[in-house]
Amino acid sequence: MDRCARWTGLLVGLLAARMVSSNDGLGVGMLYAIPVFGLCAVAGVLVGDALTAPPRGTVRTAGLTPRRMRDYVPPRMTALLLAEAAALVVVLTVAAAVASPDDMGRAGRSLTITCPGDRTTSSSPWPGLFYSLPILAALAVSTAACAWSLARIARRPGNEQTRHNRSLATVAAWGLLVSTPLLGATSTASGALMDTDCDGMVGRLATWVLWPTALVALITVPWCLFTLLAPKAGVRR
User: Fold this and answer.
1) CB 127 within 8 A of CB 206
2) Helix (H), strand (E), coil (C) string for 18-86
3) Domain boundaries, the chain
4) Which residues share a beta bridge with 100?
5) Between residues 235 and 188, which one has the greater pLDDT?
6) What pLDDT, on the 0 to 100 scale, is given for residue 59?
7) What is the rounded average pLDDT of the residues 128-136?
8) For the whole model, what pTM was predicted?
9) 234: exposed, middle or buried (C-beta count within 10 Å: 0-12, 13-18, 19+)?
10) At what angle do helices 200-229 and 75-98 cross, to 10 degrees?
């Protein structure tokens, strides 16, 4: 039942994400499709948790130490994803601060640089407010939903392995909601900087930071997706 509910959540998430992304407008549809898929995946984990009956037995024992959420999340993956979430917020904040309107007047969708001789050059798309606001809103909602899910999983009756597996699946779903926008934001920003011919040393330094960050996010996306499809956590003693 647990696996069936988790895979159903993934299937529903794919269908819902496709419906949302079909109403695409300058890439905004895809920004909403990513959190829709991740939240459906988390919902599948929660449904499987709710439908799984607690273990029965004549005598049950439990420790006096209360179960905490941090005891069940994967430490290395969680640390990496928190670092990526912080990097995403920094990239979007800086990009929004230097963004400018595009040729249609849409705020925060272009990067305009003044070159020597009062010549200006613009590059679009750029991850300014036009894109960063939906990303940050989705990140806030998904983070709250995943934190609530992890707290609920930790309090639920069951065995330790099941709690670890469900927590791992939830963290992996949140990881998709972090690493995918980070990959898109860093690759878009670095592409826009490379498209300009007078970004200077600051632009080159930014590109050298953005590309490694995009590479880490590129590796994290399939890792989280594979973990979400087949979570199998090791129980820490």
Assistant:
1) no
2) HHHHHCCCCCHHHHHHHHHHHHHHHHHHHHHHHHCCCCCCCCCCCCCCCCCHHHCCCHHHHHHHHHHHH
3) 2-53+74-229
4) 110
5) 188
6) 46
7) 86
8) 0.84
9) exposed
10) 140
